[in-house]
Amino acid sequence: MARGKQNGGQPGEFCAKSLLTGEFQDDLLQFMCTRLDRADPRRESSKYAETDDLAEQLIMLLEPYLPEEARGKLNELVDVQSNKDAMLTEFYYRHGFSDGVMMVVQAMMMG
Q1: Overall pTM > 0.85
Q2: Amino acid 12: pLDDT
Protein backbone atom coordinates (compact mmCIF):
# COMPACT_ATOMS: atom_id res chain seq x y z
CA MET A 1 0.00 0.00 0.00
CA ALA A 2 1.34 3.43 -0.89
CA ARG A 3 2.19 5.58 2.11
CA GLY A 4 -0.03 8.48 1.03
CA LYS A 5 -3.05 6.23 0.45
CA GLN A 6 -3.43 5.07 4.06
CA ASN A 7 -6.19 6.56 6.22
CA GLY A 8 -8.69 7.19 3.44
CA GLY A 9 -6.18 8.33 0.85
CA GLN A 10 -5.40 11.72 2.36
CA PRO A 11 -1.62 12.30 2.42
CA GLY A 12 -1.91 14.82 5.25
CA GLU A 13 -3.67 12.26 7.43
CA PHE A 14 -0.85 9.76 6.95
CA CYS A 15 1.73 12.41 7.73
CA ALA A 16 -0.06 13.40 10.93
CA LYS A 17 -0.48 9.77 11.93
CA SER A 18 3.18 9.13 11.12
CA LEU A 19 4.25 11.98 13.41
CA LEU A 20 1.97 10.78 16.19
CA THR A 21 3.13 7.17 16.04
CA GLY A 22 6.79 8.08 16.04
CA GLU A 23 7.49 6.67 12.57
CA PHE A 24 8.81 10.06 11.47
CA GLN A 25 11.13 10.14 14.47
CA ASP A 26 12.32 6.62 13.66
CA ASP A 27 13.01 7.63 10.04
CA LEU A 28 14.82 10.77 11.17
CA LEU A 29 16.95 8.79 13.61
CA GLN A 30 17.82 6.27 10.89
CA PHE A 31 18.80 9.12 8.56
CA MET A 32 20.95 10.76 11.24
CA CYS A 33 22.68 7.50 12.14
CA THR A 34 23.48 6.87 8.47
CA ARG A 35 24.98 10.35 8.14
CA LEU A 36 26.94 10.03 11.39
CA ASP A 37 28.32 6.64 10.32
CA ARG A 38 29.82 8.34 7.26
CA ALA A 39 31.53 11.06 9.30
CA ASP A 40 35.17 10.52 10.21
CA PRO A 41 36.32 13.08 12.79
CA ARG A 42 39.87 11.67 12.77
CA ARG A 43 40.17 12.43 9.06
CA GLU A 44 38.43 15.80 9.22
CA SER A 45 40.13 17.19 12.33
CA SER A 46 43.79 16.72 13.15
CA LYS A 47 43.12 18.14 16.63
CA TYR A 48 40.50 15.45 17.26
CA ALA A 49 42.88 12.76 16.01
CA GLU A 50 45.64 14.03 18.31
CA THR A 51 43.30 14.11 21.31
CA ASP A 52 41.98 10.63 20.53
CA ASP A 53 45.54 9.30 20.21
CA LEU A 54 46.49 10.92 23.52
CA ALA A 55 43.53 9.31 25.30
CA GLU A 56 44.51 5.90 23.92
CA GLN A 57 48.15 6.42 24.98
CA LEU A 58 47.09 7.37 28.50
CA ILE A 59 44.95 4.27 28.83
CA MET A 60 47.79 2.05 27.63
CA LEU A 61 50.18 3.82 30.00
CA LEU A 62 47.90 3.33 33.01
CA GLU A 63 46.77 -0.25 32.42
CA PRO A 64 50.03 -2.01 33.39
CA TYR A 65 50.03 -0.26 36.79
CA LEU A 66 46.48 -1.24 37.65
CA PRO A 67 45.27 -4.45 39.25
CA GLU A 68 43.01 -6.61 37.07
CA GLU A 69 39.79 -5.36 38.70
CA ALA A 70 40.82 -1.72 38.24
CA ARG A 71 41.64 -2.39 34.56
CA GLY A 72 38.12 -3.70 34.13
CA LYS A 73 36.72 -0.58 35.77
CA LEU A 74 38.91 1.63 33.55
CA ASN A 75 37.59 -0.16 30.46
CA GLU A 76 34.05 0.21 31.80
CA LEU A 77 34.66 3.95 32.29
CA VAL A 78 35.94 4.27 28.72
CA ASP A 79 32.83 2.47 27.43
CA VAL A 80 30.49 4.66 29.48
CA GLN A 81 32.26 7.81 28.29
CA SER A 82 32.08 6.63 24.67
CA ASN A 83 28.34 5.96 25.01
CA LYS A 84 27.86 9.37 26.63
CA ASP A 85 29.76 11.04 23.78
CA ALA A 86 27.63 9.19 21.21
CA MET A 87 24.43 10.33 22.93
CA LEU A 88 25.70 13.90 23.04
CA THR A 89 26.59 13.77 19.34
CA GLU A 90 23.09 12.51 18.52
CA PHE A 91 21.56 15.22 20.74
CA TYR A 92 23.44 18.03 18.98
CA TYR A 93 22.87 16.55 15.53
CA ARG A 94 19.13 16.24 16.20
CA HIS A 95 18.91 19.83 17.45
CA GLY A 96 21.03 21.17 14.61
CA PHE A 97 18.90 19.35 12.05
CA SER A 98 15.72 20.67 13.67
CA ASP A 99 17.12 24.21 13.75
CA GLY A 100 18.05 23.92 10.06
CA VAL A 101 14.56 22.76 9.11
CA MET A 102 13.01 25.60 11.13
CA MET A 103 15.28 28.12 9.40
CA VAL A 104 14.28 26.81 5.94
CA VAL A 105 10.57 26.89 6.84
CA GLN A 106 10.86 30.45 8.17
CA ALA A 107 12.74 31.55 5.04
CA MET A 108 10.04 29.99 2.84
CA MET A 109 7.30 31.75 4.79
CA MET A 110 9.05 35.12 4.52
CA GLY A 111 9.80 34.99 0.85
Answers
A1: no
A2: 41
